[in-house]
């Protein structure tokens, strides 16, 4: 298998591989293009977001300072907002539902590296997808680690580090993030 095939299959891969790195360099260029569009040019920014992301719903908004690894692995629903300086390391897919707000300085990562030094010397990475439900608010400087699923109607407090799944209708906080209380279920209008 090629390193890209290993990456796409969820197997350990060499992140220094030329084809793997080409994906990242393409995403860097596309993110730079998005970040260069003035915030006052809403239509231009939406066009750049749709060109960068794998799929978007209605009204995506991504403020300047955005970074990603592939872009095409990011899938967002309707009414999506990524505030300033958000990073999504989308080596594996990142699925984000409708009505999601991501606070400034937040990191969503699908990539990890071996704990053993030999694996790191070999430049190995392994990716696991991240899924975020509908009606989620991630506060500023939240970190979401690989393989995490966040349910719907969830608030993650600023500065939290999410290492495990968070169920629907929850408020979570801390390092590592823990559910600190349940939230009322959403009643549709």
Q: Could you please describe the fold and organization of this structure?
A:
The protein is α/β, with parallel strands linked by helices and 189 residues long. It has one domain (3-171): Hexapeptide repeat proteins (UDP N-Acetylglucosamine Acyltransferase, domain 1), CATH 2.160.10.10. It is 22% helix and 27% strand. The chain has helices spanning 3-8, 18-36, 42-52, 117-121, and strands at 13-14, 61-62, 67-68, 74-76, 81-82, 87-89, 94-96, 101-102, 107-109, 111-112, 124-127, 130-132, 137-138, 143-144, 149-150, 154-156, 161-162, 170-173, 178-182. It has a seven-stranded mixed β-sheet. Strands 3-6-9-14-17 form a five-stranded parallel β-sheet. Helix 2 (18-36) packs antiparallel against helix 3. The longest helix is centred in the first third of the chain and has 19 residues, at 18-36. The relative contact order is 0.11.
Strand content: 25-35%
Regarding CATH, which class? Mainly Beta
Query: How many distinct folded domains?
Result: 1
- The residue fraction in helices comes out at 10-25%
- Major pleated sheet: 7 strands, mixed
Radius of gyration: 17 Å
Helix/strand/pairing class, anyone?
Answer: alpha/beta
Low-confidence stretches: none
Number of extended strands: 19
Give the end-to-end Cα distance, rounded to a whole number of Å.
Answer: 50 Å
CATH architecture designation: 3 Solenoid
């Amino acid at each position: 298998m090629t390193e890209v095939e290993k990456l796409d299959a969820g197997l350990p891969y060499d992140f220094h591989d030329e084809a793997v790195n080409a994906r990242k360099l393409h995403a860097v260029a596309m993110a730079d293009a998005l970040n260069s569009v003035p915030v006052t040019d809403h239509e231009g920014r939406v066009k750049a977001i749709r060109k960068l992301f794998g799929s978007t719903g209605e009204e995506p908004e991504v403020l300047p300072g955005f970074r990603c690894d592939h872009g095409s692995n990011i899938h967002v629903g309707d009414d999506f907002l990524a505030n300033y300086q958000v990073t999504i390391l989308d080596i594996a897919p990142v699925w984000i539902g409708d009505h999601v707000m991501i606070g400034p300085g937040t990191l969503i990562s699908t990539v990890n590296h071996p704990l053993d030094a030999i694996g790191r010397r070999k430049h190995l990475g392994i990716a696991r997808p991240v899924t975020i439900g509908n009606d989620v608010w991630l506060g500023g400087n939240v970190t979401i680690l690989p393989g995490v699923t966040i349910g719907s109607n969830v608030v993650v407090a600023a500065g939290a580090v999410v290492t495990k799944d968070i169920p629907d209708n929850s408020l979570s906080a801390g390092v590592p993030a823990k559910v600190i209380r349940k939230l009322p279920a959403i009643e549709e209008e």
